[in-house]
Design a protein that fits this description.
Layout lengths: L4 H16 L19 E4 L1 H8 L5 H15 L4 E7 L2 E6 L1 H15 L12 E5 L11 H19 L3 E8 L4 H13 L5 H4 L3 H25 L2 H10 L4 H21 L1 H14 L3 H25 L5 E4 H17 L4 E2 L5 E5 L1 H12 L11 E6 L7 H16 L3 E7 L3 H13 L8 E6 L2 E3 L2 E2 L10 H18 L6 H21 L7 E2 L2 H4 L7 H18 L15 H23 L3 H20 L8 H24 L9
Parallel strand pairs: 4-5, 4-10, 5-6, 10-11, 12-14
Antiparallel strand pairs: 1-3, 2-3, 7-8, 8-9, 12-13
Length: about 650
């Protein structure tokens, strides 16, 4: 067939605009909420106001258009009706199913993909620290980042995926100090521990040593002890004030503590290029990179570019010093360099990036530290350098940072500082803010060891998937079981993390994510597998030419509606940076297919032309489910 769903909508749009003498962009062709109202709908409110100056004329206009389109579209429309202020259109089944299925089978994995644009977009995600392994939060970050990259690429953009590795700084020095204190020459190979986990254990040991000092400080200070108790109080106002003061005291304590001073001294030596310090740093980072690589392979995370803080932080320092010279930044009494950001500029970026209302009543400029008094850099220093490097080296049109919601204020300050420095492309920087992943007892805390490591989670979910596969009693080899469990388990995790609005906090439940009857990845994977099973059983038979005019049952109409809507869902998801739209649509498509499968026979439909048409619809369904899941980074299985 020469028609596609897009051209059918375009024909409808053209007929309406010619009948009313309007421009194309003034006519909307949508999908009615229920298939009983047809396949397309044209709302007439705005058209009536545009042509007759009165929205109350919408019903009369719909009636007028119904007669015109019924006459003009006899070759493609089964009927055209005015229902109140809406013009409802039903396509002939041979046209609807024939065009849609043919287009899907033709385009296959490229269905819904838009033509290439000149826009170059970088999606930065994961951004691990080289002092601990990837954890549960990193998985959600990576799943969302990879899905965004896939959606933007399908929308026609040239996408560069990048991973900013935080491989230097005081947090990295904490692991190094602890290794010097407690390592005793151990290595990952000698201890039998994966490299990133090995180094992460020393980060925890450092924090434990620091906490021991802190508790000793508290016990020796009645004032601090009283502040701690006040922070635990039920009076929210007093409690929040106490927490803020306690955090300030904790920062001062870190500067004064033995552990804190050791880490800061290590950082100064690193920045000065001290050979032994650099050698220890390189050795411990190499252990972590080996561990990260293994985790990336298990999670199927791929990157076009790796950016390393250790190679960029000097650029950030130069930018800060240049800003000091030009008076944009200021030097404080203790020698630190900071910037004063107006509340108007800060709220402007917050409003744009995070969809929040501008904060009223804030008149005091916010001060952001850029270099400490000892000359060492902070995260903002590094991120200024990273932002400039990205746009200069990769000639970007847009830069998206996939980072948790706890860093919203950080990125608002970063983008505001870039604007203050005169970089016009600051407006093209976006923080994709997503909600945290919570444990049953609350938020993860790396310093306390209260995390779910990514590797441990993958192991657990693969084990649960393995048990479910074995329960079915199929005759499978151990390799077949492992392979299926890996695909099902990883699909369960990824779908769980991407199915909700990215900005919401979630609690991950492994058992729930594997429920083959729930709102899950395995449910969608199983619908695909069921499609492929039908197609395999049909291979032995000679297929006739599909007679799409025989289709039109309610469950067939609902199914084709879901298939043809995927491109629009993809476009909306890319525009709004919301991969959950695709996850929800794939799940609804799987539901529609299962209803079709329950209600109608495919191979035993009787008439050869009807059998062939339903088989083509099943094949198109398998491609749509697979297409949607792959956009989310999820693989499918021919057998489950």
């Amino acid at each position: 067939m020469d028609f596609t769903i897009s051209t059918l909508k375009a024909i409808t749009r053209t007929l309406v605009q010619e009948a009313l003498g309007l421009e194309e962009n003034e006519v909307q062709v949508a999908y009615p909420p229920d298939i009983k109202f047809g396949d397309f709908a044209v709302p007439c409110f705005n058209l009536a106001e545009r042509v007759r100056g009165d929205k109350r004329e919408a019903a009369n206009m719909a009636t007028l258009l119904a007669s015109t389109l019924q006459e003009e579209g006899t070759s493609i429309y089964e009927w055209v009706r005015a229902v109140g202020p809406y013009l409802n259109i039903k396509l002939k089944p041979a046209i609807l199913f024939g065009c849609a299925v043919s287009e899907i089978l033709r385009d296959r994995e490229r269905f819904g993909e838009k033509h290439r644009t000149a826009k170059k977009v970088m999606v930065e995600y994961l951004s691990p620290n080289t002092n601990k392994p990837l954890h549960l939060g990193h998985i959600r970050n990576g799943v969302l980042g990879a899905a965004l990259a896939n959606l933007l690429e399908a929308a026609g953009h040239t996408v560069i995926t990048s991973n900013l590795v935080n491989d230097r700084g005081v947090h990295i020095c904490k692991s190094m100090v602890a290794y010097e204190w407690f390592g005793g020459g151990q290595t990952p190979a000698l201890s039998g521990v994966k490299g990133d986990h090995f180094v992460g254990d020393y980060y925890i040991r450092f924090e434990q040593a620091l906490e021991a000092e802190w508790q000793k400080r508290i016990q020796g200070s009645p004032e601090l002890l009283a502040l701690v108790e006040k922070a635990k109080g039920v009076d929210s106002t007093a409690s929040e004030s106490a927490k803020e003061k306690l955090a300030q005291q904790r920062e001062v304590f870190f500067e004064e503590s033995q552990a804190g001073q050791s880490a800061q001294a290590m950082l100064r030596k690193w920045e000065a290029g001290h050979p032994e310090t650099r050698a220890l740093w390189s050795k411990m980072n190499s252990w972590v990179y080996e561990g990260f690589s293994e985790s990336y392979r298990r999670l199927n995370f791929l990157f076009d570019a790796f950016l390393y803080e250790s190679e960029i932080y000097r650029l950030g320092k130069r930018i800060v010093l240049e800003g000091l010279k030009t008076g944009i930044f200021q030097r404080g009494e203790k020698g630190e360099i900071s910037a004063s950001i107006s509340p108007e500029l800060l709220s402007r970026f917050k409003s744009r990036q995070f969809r929040k209302k501008e904060t009223k009543g804030e008149h005091t400029p916010r001060r952001a530290t850029l270099l400490r008094h000892d000359g060492t850099s902070v995260y903002l220093t590094q991120d200024l350098g990273v932002a400039v490097l990205k746009f200069q080296e990769y000639l970007l049109d847009r830069s998206i940072y996939v980072v948790g919601s706890e860093q919203e204020d950080h990125f608002a300050r970063l983008f505001a500082l870039l604007q203050m420095l005169g970089y016009a492309w600051a407006e093209q920087c976006e923080h994709f803010s997503y909600g945290m992943v919570l444990l049953p007892q609350g938020k993860m805390k790396s310093r306390e060891g209260k995390v779910v490591d990514a590797d441990d989670l993958l192991d657990e979910v693969e084990f649960l998937a393995t048990e479910k596969i074995k329960e079915r009693g199929e005759s499978l080899t151990e390799e077949e079981i492992r392979s299926r469990a890996k695909t099902i388990g990883l699909g369960a995790i990824k779908f769980f993390f991407v199915k909700s609005d990215p900005r919401t906090e979630i609690r991950y439940d492994p058992a729930e994510s594997l429920d083959v009857e729930g709102f899950t990845g395995p449910y969608c994977q199983y619908a695909y597998t069921r499609c492929r099973g039908i197609l395999r059983r049909a291979q032995a038979e000679q297929r006739e030419r599909p007679d799409f005019s025989r289709l039109g049952e309610e469950s067939e109409l609902w199914l084709i509606r879901h298939l043809i809507q995927l491109p629009e869902v993809m476009g909306y998801a890319a525009e709004t940076l919301d991969p959950s739209q695709v996850a929800q649509h794939v799940w609804k498509t799987a539901q529609a297919f299962n209803q079709f499968y329950h209600n109608l026979s495919v191979l035993e439909a009787g008439d050869p032309g009807l059998v062939a048409a339903r088989l083509a619809l099943v094949e198109a369904t398998s491609l749509i489910i697979q297409r949607g899941l792959r956009l989310l980074g999820i693989d499918t299985l021919e057998k489950m």
